[in-house]
C-alpha cells in the first residue's frame, strides 16, 4: 500500500514538473490596430505597457494577418490555415445566423494546448460564428428594431467557442457594432435582451450592456482567470481578443481626453491599459517569468477611425504604409506584433522575419512539443527558433494575404504580387483605374510604400509567384506535407497574354 502511494506521488510530481516546463501563454489580439498606433513605433498616444513588452521582448517588424478584415484573419490565427480554404471567400460575418466557420473536428490553438495539458479560455470578441437557437414566433418583438430578436436567449447555444478547444468563454458574438449586444458565458447568454441599442447597427441588447464598458469587463474577467489558474499549477492559455480600437470608438469616461488626439487615441490608451492589467495580474501571482505574452492585431487601422484627422495630429496609425483595413496594400495587414517570454526571448530584440499570424499555431505546437496531424495547421510555419534568436528561423515559404473583396496577394522574400488592379478593399482605387494593369508587383525592400508597379519589368517573377499561388491552392496547403482538400473551390486570376485581361479561373478543392 505504501509502495502504491509512493508511486502515485512520484507520478503526480512528474506530471507537475512536465506541466511547469510549459509556459503559460497569453495571446492578446487588438481589433483594427495599425503598426503606427503603438508609441514605440511612432504613435502619438502613449502605450507604455506595449512599449514595455517591446523593451522586455521581441518586436516583429514584418508580421502580417492572413486577411485584412477580422473574421477571416481570426480563423487563420486560431487554426493555422488560410480562411480562403473555407466557405468564407470574402467579407466578414455580420449576422446572428452565420454558422461557425471553424468545423467541429478542426484543430485550433485552443484544442492543441488543451491536449497538451493546458487550461484554456477565451475572453472577448469571437466573430467566428455562434450557433444560436431561434424562436418560432416574433410576435412579442414586432415593435423592436434591428437584428437579433429572433434568437431564443433563454436557451443555450448549440455551438460556442467551448466547442473549439476552450474550457471557458466570456465575451460577445462579434464587433461592438454588430447585434446582439449581450454577453455570453460558455454557451449561455448572461441576460435576455429587452431593448434596442444602436452602436452603428441597431439590434437586440440587454439594458445593462454598454459598449464603453467592454474593455473593463474583459480586463476584469482576464484577471479573474489568471488569479484562479495561477494557483492550480496547471499551465494556462488565455486568448484575449479585444473590441478596440474598432468602431464604435468608445473609450470609457476615465480615458476621455487623455491622448490629446481625440477619442481614437483615448481608445488606444485604454487598450494599452488592458495589457497592463494582464501583466500586473501575472506579476501579482508570481507567474510573469514563466508566461509567454504575444500581442498583435487582426488587421490594420480602419478608415472609419478618421485617419486623415489623426494624421493631422501627427499620428500615423498605419505608419507610412499604403492602404488601410480591408486592403491588400501593406496598411491592411501588416500589424504591430511583440512577444515577451523572459529567459527565452532576448529583451529589446527585433526581427524582420517574414511572419504571418497563421504561424502562431505551429509555434505554440513547437513550444509544447505537440505534433499536429497532417490535416492541421496546413499553412503554419513555426517561429520558435526566431523567438530564441532573432537572426534565425527564416520562414522560407511565401505568405498569402486576402482582402475584403476576396482578392489575393502573395509575398515571397522582398517581392509581393497583388492579383488585383487596385486595393482589393476600401481604399481607392478599389479595383484599379481604367488602363491599369490587372495585377501589381512590388519590391518591398526598395518600395515599401508600393508606389511603383514593376509588373511588366519582371515577368519571370510574376510567373514564379503566380505558380506558387496555384500550387498552394492545388495542394490544399502551403507547407510541406501530404496534400489536403480545400473546403470549396478557390478562384485565382489566370495568366493571359494580355495583362489587362486576366479572367478568374477556378481551381478544384
TrEMBL record:
Pfam families: Sulfatase. Residues 23-369 form the Sulfatase N-terminal domain. GO terms for molecular function: arylsulfatase activity; metal ion binding. InterPro entries: Alkaline_phosphatase_core_sf, Sulfatase, Sulfatase_CS, Sulfatase_N. The keyword Hydrolase applies. Keywords: Calcium, Hydrolase, Metal-binding. Belongs to the sulfatase family. This is Arylsulfatase. It comes from Sulfuriroseicoccus oceanibius.
Amino acid at each position: 500500500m505504501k509502495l502504491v502511494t509512493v508511486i502515485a506521488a512520484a507520478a503526480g510530481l512528474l506530471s507537475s514538473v512536465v506541466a511547469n516546463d510549459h509556459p503559460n501563454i497569453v495571446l492578446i489580439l487588438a481589433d483594427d490596430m495599425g503598426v503606427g498606433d503603438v508609441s514605440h513605433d511612432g504613435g502619438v498616444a502613449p502605450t507604455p505597457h506595449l512599449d514595455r513588452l517591446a523593451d522586455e521582448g521581441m518586436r516583429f517588424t514584418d508580421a502580417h494577418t492572413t486577411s485584412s478584415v477580422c473574421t477571416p484573419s481570426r480563423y487563420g490565427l486560431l487554426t493555422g490555415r488560410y480562411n480562403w480554404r473555407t466557405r468564407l471567400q470574402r467579407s466578414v460575418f455580420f449576422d446572428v445566423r452565420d454558422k461557425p466557420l471553424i468545423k467541429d473536428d478542426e484543430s485550433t490553438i485552443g484544442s492543441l494546448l488543451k491536449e497538451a495539458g493546458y487550461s484554456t479560455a477565451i475572453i472577448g470578441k469571437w466573430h467566428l460564428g455562434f450557433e444560436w437557437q431561434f424562436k418560432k414566433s416574433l410576435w412579442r418583438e414586432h415593435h423592436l428594431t434591428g437584428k437579433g430578436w429572433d434568437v431564443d436567449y433563454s436557451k443555450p447555444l448549440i455551438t460556442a467557442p467551448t466547442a473549439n478547444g476552450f474550457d471557458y468563454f466570456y465575451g460577445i458574438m462579434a464587433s461592438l457594432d454588430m447585434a446582439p449586444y449581450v454577453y455570453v458565458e460558455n454557451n449561455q447568454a448572461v441576460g435576455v435582451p429587452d431593448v434596442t441599442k444602436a452602436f452603428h447597427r441597431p439590434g437586440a441588447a440587454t439594458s445593462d450592456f454598454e459598449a464603453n464598458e467592454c474593455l473593463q469587463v474583459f480586463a476584469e474577467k482576464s484577471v479573474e482567470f489568471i488569479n484562479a489558474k495561477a494557483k492550480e499549477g496547471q499551465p494556462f492559455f488565455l486568448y484575449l481578443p479585444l473590441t478596440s480600437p474598432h468602431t464604435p470608438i468608445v473609450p470609457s469616461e476615465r480615458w476621455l481626453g487623455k491622448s490629446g488626439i481625440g477619442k481614437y487615441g483615448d481608445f488606444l490608451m485604454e487598450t494599452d491599459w488592458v495589457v497592463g492589467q494582464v501583466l500586473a495580474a501575472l506579476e501579482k501571482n508570481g507567474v510573469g517569468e514563466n508566461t509567454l505574452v504575444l500581442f498583435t492585431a487582426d488587421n490594420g487601422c480602419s478608415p472609419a477611425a478618421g485617419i486623415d484627422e489623426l494624421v493631422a495630429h501627427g499620428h500615423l496609425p498605419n505608419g507610412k504604409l499604403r492602404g488601410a483595413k480591408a486592403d491588400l496594400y501593406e496598411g491592411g495587414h501588416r500589424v504591430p506584433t511583440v512577444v515577451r517570454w523572459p529567459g527565452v526571448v532576448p529583451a529589446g530584440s527585433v526581427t524582420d522575419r517574414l511572419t504571418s499570424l497563421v504561424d502562431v499555431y505551429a509555434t505554440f505546437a513547437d513550444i509544447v512539443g505537440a505534433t499536429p496531424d497532417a490535416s492541421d495547421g496546413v499553412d503554419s510555419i513555426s517561429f520558435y527558433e526566431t523567438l530564441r534568436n532573432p537572426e534565425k528561423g527564416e520562414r522560407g515559404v511565401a505568405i498569402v494575404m486576402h482582402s475584403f473583396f476576396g482578392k489575393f496577394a502573395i509575398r515571397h522574400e522582398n517581392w509581393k504580387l497583388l492579383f488585383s488592379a487596385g486595393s482589393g478593399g476600401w481604399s481607392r482605387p478599389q479595383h484599379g483605374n481604367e488602363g491599369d494593369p490587372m495585377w501589381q508587383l512590388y519590391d518591398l525592400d526598395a518600395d515599401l510604400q508600393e508606389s511603383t508597379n514593376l509588373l511588366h519589368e519582371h515577368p519571370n517573377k510574376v510567373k514564379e509567384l503566380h505558380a506558387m499561388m496555384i500550387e498552394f491552392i492545388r495542394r490544399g496547403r502551403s507547407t510541406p506535407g501530404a496534400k489536403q482538400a480545400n473546403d470549396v473551390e478557390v478562384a485565382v486570376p489566370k495568366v493571359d497574354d494580355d495583362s489587362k485581361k486576366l479572367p478568374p479561373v477556378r481551381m478544384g478543392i
